[in-house]
Amino acid sequence: MLEGEYGLSLLYSIDFIEFTKSLIMILDGLLECPAPSQNMVTLISEICFLLKVFFAYQFNLYDIIDKTHNIPNILLKGILFAKGTAIEDAIQQLAYFICANISSNDKEKLPLAQILRAFLDSRIIFNKFAKMSLYESIKLLLELYKKLRNEEYIDSIAKFTEIMDYFTSCSTLETSNSAEPKAPLLGLLELASDLISVTSFNKEPDAVRLTKFINQIFFGGLFPDSKGKFICKAIDTRYMAYNLIIRIGQYYSTCIIGLIRDCMLPLPKKVSGLNVWGYIPSNHERSSLGYTGLKNLGCICYINSMLQQFFLIAPFRNAIVSVRDNKEPNYAENGVDDNLIHQFQRTFVYLMHSKRRDYNPAAFCYSFKEFDGKPTNTAIQHDAHEFLNILFERLEQEFKNTIYTRLVQSVFGGKLSSQVICTNCGHVSSTYEDYYTLSLEIKNQRTLDDSLDRFIAGSTICDYLCDNCKERIDATRRTLISTLPNVLIVHLQRFSYNFNTFMIEKIHTRLEFPNVLDMTNYTEEGHACLFNKREDPKVEQKNSKIVKGPENEKEREERNAKGKFDTQESKKELKEKEYYTYKLVGVLTHNGNAEAGHYYSYININRRSTNTNMNTENDHWLEFNDSIISEFAFSKLGVECFGGSMEDMGTGYMDENSEVAKLIGGRSKSAYMLFYERQKKDKIPLRIERPLLNSKETISSSLECDSTAVSRTGNNITGNTQEENFCYYDYYNIPCITSPELLSVIFC
Ligand SMILES: [Zn+2]
Prior knowledge:
By secondary structure, the protein is an alpha+beta fold. Helices cover 43% and strands 14% of the residues. Strands 5, 8, 11, 13, 14, 15, 16 and 17 form an eight-stranded mixed sheet that branches. The protein has a five-stranded mixed sheet with strand order 6-7-3-4-12. Strands 1-2 form a two-stranded parallel ribbon. Zinc ion binds next to loops.
């Protein structure tokens, strides 16, 4: 269109200066929009494109416009406050285009110098909200600066020094070696690295100064300074700090002597206790999978594997770490706070925050008393189910005077209904009892459903005096589930007493269990439904009534007085499907026989309990084996947990009785306890203290994660963990010194 005479005259008739000014003003306005629409984003990109064309078309345009509109500031604003990468990219490209293509005779007015200065001098680069895109832009411009530079336009030494000053004064921003790096720290280190390549330190006189900088990055940055403080904790940040040291070394090789003399040589002196052979520092670190293990002090794998299962049940963990029993520490002679709740908290807080590979649960074991009231003997192996029962009993006791009065019941507890059914009149007499685990027979059962069927199967009792018809007659006794828990723990009875040998034996037979468990048929209401469907007239259809245990004496009297029978026996309405549906989230496995064996846990760490996704096999499963945490491929569940002979396991090539089979224990490992989490969870009731109510503070908790729990953790425990982490770094965080890049610079 612009070709030919007509086009040219059109071109000449446009007032580019006014037009560009308008575009800049529109751009400036658009960039302030907190939530730009897609149209606005497109408009911004197009304005940036037009500006590039105009600036290229008329070289002095930039100079003229810049007199009235501060272009560097507008660009800075665009990168800092732009919502979305599309805008950032457009602005970044515009800035780069201007810097790369527009020159000026006046070096003070060179766009590159102006824009670079504006970016570098903005205090935002030290702000914790600074974006990585800002550092990226500066990096690009510095590259350009390096190429074009034949004179100094920016004071890079001053900037470098300023960054170093900030570095030493900044408080610890990062909290964990696996945490996300914080933008300003990572960005500033990167910036300092880039500045080194455009900075003209005088090699000789400034070596001392640079050596001092290296020292600052080393101690206080990478390793603890005299106060035990160090700044770089995220892996990326540490990498960048090393990179900066390497950069300084590359440009100013004289500094390397200082690095070795002042930093590297004193470092081993800070390290004590390194007198073991085969020491590999990374073996002492928290697993890269993000979890801390538990040290086995002899035979306590039954405690360790159970504690990890509990730790991964978020509401239970959160309740434990946030609960206050308002008791002073009860120090025993050995200095241990002999209080189960306190030790439970301590253990969980360490599992959350410790940087070590494992936590030593000695104090927990001390505060957990065995049947005889003595501290746990860590040299004796116990049954995991037995441990669980005692633990729940103790916790129930300990939680009585806290806000989580019914924590154990709320998370793990359900009710069983023991029924006796008169074969004459069909009268059902029910008593209810609490349960925290379902203990199932597995002998001669192939699947978990078989075991559950067996659990609810009736047995005949003879000569029963019926409350209702007053006849002495045979009756059926059976157990059904009255209420289901949020987390269902299933105990598989793999250990049984052999009355011939008077020995406890382990049942090694195969028992399959599902990823998704439907409990409907084992509940009172579900079972009744099933029977009604089958139209079994024997028991369920007769005139029957429900009589509850002694706690409902009053109700029964009322009904008797009315002379009216409740014909709706067990016809509680069926609840929605999610109430009965459970997803497998943990398997506690036993490997060995009745005399000797080892417990460890497989746990779904990404159970996504908030949505309806029940595909546990697609979640992330890990093996928690005392100190060691490793990946677990869920596809191996059958081989690792169902038990049974080698043939059952589908290998088929090995004789199960062969020495090899015995050696690898293929047959001896099988699931011992199963952890199922319900699709639809009930809230955990809290006992709210009056003062709390008055202050209008509300605490709500459910089976979903409660994010406030950690902040409510006792400060002293968190403090202890931090302190220990510092010591840990001091003594163990040596692996970084062997960073190959660093060594290659020093020794090349
Ligand atoms: Zn009867």
